[in-house]
Amino acid sequence: MESVWQRCGKWLCDLGGRGKLYLRWWVARGWHSRRAWCWIGGAIVLLALALSVVRQPLADWLWPDTRIQQLLEQGEQALREGRLSDADGSGARERFEAAAALDPDRRDIQDARVRTGEAALRQARQQLAAGNHEAARAALGLARQLQMPQAGIAALAAELRRAEHQAGGIEQLLQQAQAAQRQGRLDDGPDSALPLYQQVLALQPEQMQALEGREDALSDLLLHARRLAAQGRLQQAARQLQRVEAFDPGHYDLPDARARLSAALEQRRRAAERDLARGRLQAATTGLQEVLAASPADEAAQLDLQRVARAQAAEAVRLARDFHFAEAAKALQQARVLAPEMAEIVAAEQVLARAKAAQQSMDSVVPAAQREQQVRALLAKMEQAEVQGQWLLPPGNSAYDHFKAAQALAPQDARVQRAAARILPAARSCLEDNLRGNRLRAARTCLDAWQALAPGDAGLAMARRRLAQRWIAVGSERLGGGDTGFAAQALHQARQIDAATPEIAAFSERLDSVQALR
Q1: pLDDT at residue number 37
Q2: Which of 403, 463, 476, 405 is nearest to 435 (CA)?
Q3: Rounded CA gap, 268 and 274, in Å?
Q4: Own/partner pairs for 178-187, CB < 8 Å, 24+ apart?
Q5: Share of the chain above pLDDT 70, in %
Q6: Backbone angles phi, psi at 498, to 5 degrees
Q7: Which among 310, 321, 299, 327 has a CA at the least distance from the CA of 276?
Q8: 55 burial via Cβ count (<10 Å: 0-12, 13-18, 19+)
Q9: What pLDDT is recorded for position 469?
Q10: With 80 as the cut, is the pLDDT of residue 160 above it?
Q11: Which of 194, 213, 222, 254 is the most exposed, fewest CB within 10 Å of its CB?
């Protein structure tokens, strides 16, 4: 009995023999036939068309993984671009569903569909925050279709319903804000444009009309601030800038407005310095106070104001020596307001008190013999206090006190004039001696004597600076040993003597840092 393979072999041999006969017949009879060649050409064309039509379906049938991978890549691209669903089939959802139809069991396809649903939920939240309720509802519907967790969908749907309920109130607030903006009421009460826009944005932070309206209103405020700065109304301009910063610290017009205000402040401060140089102290004070009202941290204006206070103290001394006590007291009061702890003010107060006492002594009728006796006694006490180094202290018994009393009794007396010529150099020497010995409190007393005797002396400024720097140096050394109490006293002394000393700022920061660690 023949096997299957034997029967197949015979069949193929028989088919081959017949084919051979047909081929011989075609060569013999059809080679030169035009109709045969037409049939052959037509068959080739039909075969090519058939292959072009069925090539992709055939490839998908033969190699399905290739088509799935292509769909996944297209879906991922659409997901990155935010095209979650599209009617033309190019959305992420449609691409992933097409891939799932080819192989529903693949895990990466299932994961891709989940990520599309999560993106739909995120998009719904974003559209809800922007006040676009229709787009939020569409994204939420897509999340439902992709079978995202019901709890998250339900919470977002409830939030959407509340937002739609509030939309009527938000729309009313928005209309009120726009009306106030058209009327020019930008920031002058709770019913003005900016506060109303803020209420809308508190409910819907991405509400585009409110964001654009607020941006325009803030630009108008900044334009007004620039005009105020140009007019010299510095404090009002600064307040406008502060309001803009409170609403939107990143507004694109803010840097330019700040620069305009800074330029106006610098111009005003320079004008005040010119007033000070020309002796117009009240005008200088007014200008500097305007600068500090707009910019309280302006160190240059603060230092200039101290210079004004020092000049007013010197003016008070001059007026007191001429016995113009009311004007001197007024100048001292103005200086006190600007710098209450300044050493020059304390010295000027002493000058004023002594000048008043001197006038009272001069007004009293004293016999010549008695006056001579009193002058001689006062000069002797002055010399004794001088030997003991008691220039200004103790009050009422210092060399300077005795000298001023003698001067009041006999201002033209040669002995009093010689004492005056001797006491000022002695005060300077006293300062130097105590500085060398690091006796800073005694040095301060000598400096005060110098200040009282010659308020306009050119060397006083350098002497004050040296003593203040010495206090800082000693305070820094003691701070290194942990004595913060003495360091704080040293800082206080340095500021009283010369607040403009450059080393004060760094020492103050260092002291604050050490105290903060305790």
Answers
A1: 47
A2: 463
A3: 10
A4: 178/209, 178/213, 181/213, 181/216, 181/217, 186/217, 186/220, 186/221, 187/217, 187/221, 187/243
A5: 81
A6: -155, 95
A7: 310
A8: exposed
A9: 92
A10: no
A11: 254
Contacts of 108 (CB under 8 A, 6+ apart): 72
CB half-sphere exposure, 385, CA atoms < 13 A: 24
**What are the tokens at 137?**
């509802």
Find tokens 């001292």 and name the residue: 332
Query: Tokens at residue 358, please?
Result: 């001197």
Using DSSP's 3-state secondary structure scheme, residue 481 falls into coil
CA distances 361 to 196, 320, 364, 408, 409, Å, are: 73, 15, 5, 6, 7
Helix/strand/coil percent split, the chain, to 5:
80, 0, 20
CA distance 122 to 128: 10
Give the separation between CA 167 and CA 160, rounded to whole angstroms. Answer: 10
DSSP single-letter state for residue 27: I
| pLDDT given at position 471 | 93
Structure tokens at 78: 């659409």
**Distance (Å, whole) CA 123 – CA 121:** 5
- The answer, yes or no, to whether residue 116 has pLDDT greater than 90, is no
Identify the band that residue 397 occupies on the pLDDT scale cut at 50, 70 and 90: confident
What number is the average pLDDT over the span 99-116? 84
Span 131-152, mean pLDDT?
A: 82
Q: How many CA atoms lie within 13 A of 207 on its CB side?
A: 21
Burial of 248 (0-12, 13-18, 19+ CB in 10 A): middle
CA distance 15 to 441: 132
Residue 248 exposure: Cα atoms within 13 Å on the Cβ side: 24
Place of tokens 């010399």: 383
Alpha-carbon separation of residue 153 from 121, 129, 143 (angstroms): 8, 16, 8
Q: Which residue has the tokens 């106006």?
A: 264
- Read off the DSSP letter of residue 501: -
Q: Looking at 24-33, 181-190, 262-271, 341-350, which range is the least confident one?
A: 24-33
- Euclidean distance between CA atoms 2 and 323, whole angstroms: 153
Angstrom distance (rounded) from CA 195 to CA 387: 74
Mean predicted confidence (pLDDT) in 143-170: 75
The arithmetic mean of pLDDT across residues 107-129, rounded, is 85
3-state secondary structure 237-268: HHHHHHHHHHHCCCCCCHHHHHHHHHHHHHHH
The gap between the terminal CA atoms of the chain, to the nearest Å, is 112
Sign of CA dihedral 271, 272, 276, 278: positive
The residue among 333, 328, 327, 306 whose CA lies nearest residue 316 is: 328
